[in-house]
Amino acid sequence: MLPRIDIPEDRRQRIIDRAGHLADEVGVDLLACCPATFVAICEAFKSEGVELFSPETQDAVTQGMVGLHGGVAMTGVGTCGAVTAATFAISYVVGVSSADLARDGNLNYASSIPAVESVIDRFEEDYGAIDCLRVRYNRVQRALDLTDPDARILELTFAMYEKEKCAMGHPNFEDGRDQTPPARGARYACEAICELLALEPDERKVIPAHLQGLSPRDMEPQLKKVVEVLKEMGWGRPNEKISYRDYRKLKLKGKAAVERERLGDMPAPEV
After folding, report:
1. What pLDDT sits at residue 237?
2. Which of 85, 168, 176, 254 could be 37's S-S partner, Cβ–Cβ 3.0 to 4.6 Å?
3. How far is Cα of residue 197 from the mean position of the Cα atoms in its chain?
4. Sign, Cα dihedral of 253, 256, 260, 263
5. Any bridge partners for residue 79, and if so which?
6. Separation between Cα atoms, residue 36 and residue 61, nearest integer Å
7. Please, which residues have CB within 8 angstroms of residue 168's CB and are 6 or more apart in sequence?
């Protein structure tokens, strides 16, 4: 667990700006939003003498994050890699351990709240979404299959056409005015981490009163009767499955578009 570290305002700003620069620079080399964002966060803090991870741990985590690029394994249906890396770094600094969760499962809110407030809400404002598919779609109302070689050519063309919305580099880069998702994700995460490091380790794990008592262990006795009633009613559609390609159509074009391409009369899930 990281100790309390008070970082003066001028150093904070240097870390934030450095993270934006590095995210673009590293992104051009790696062409992968998730590891680029993570490396930028780590190296920005390291430039001001704060080591979030040991070099060995940083390298190991970076390797794992390559597979989270492009909405998880280039499928586009998962979360933007920049958001994933930023949330990972924030959660690590909050410091909720497996032992903490075993004692109180409600502590997952401690890591979630600063990530939502610092990164996710701001990404929604910037890009209209946090999932890779919609971030790219909102760029030019096109989002292609990243695993299709032909479509990949067009996707890179769109990335060059609207760099500030989803791309790995920006030629009109100005200090403190980073535009790409990795640059913004790294900057937003660094802001949050600076705030968290100013707190004592135990203070980072405090959750608001209105979210306390919501762990499964706390709620299970009250919910058992509700579960039995729902089972009797046959609530839900547990046997229905949907592929990620159908899910993508569902999100972009609605239920009717999926049903038109399905054989027979199998209905599509509700949006």
Report:
1. 62
2. 85
3. 21
4. positive
5. 131
6. 12
7. 24, 27, 28, 30, 31, 33, 36, 159, 180, 182
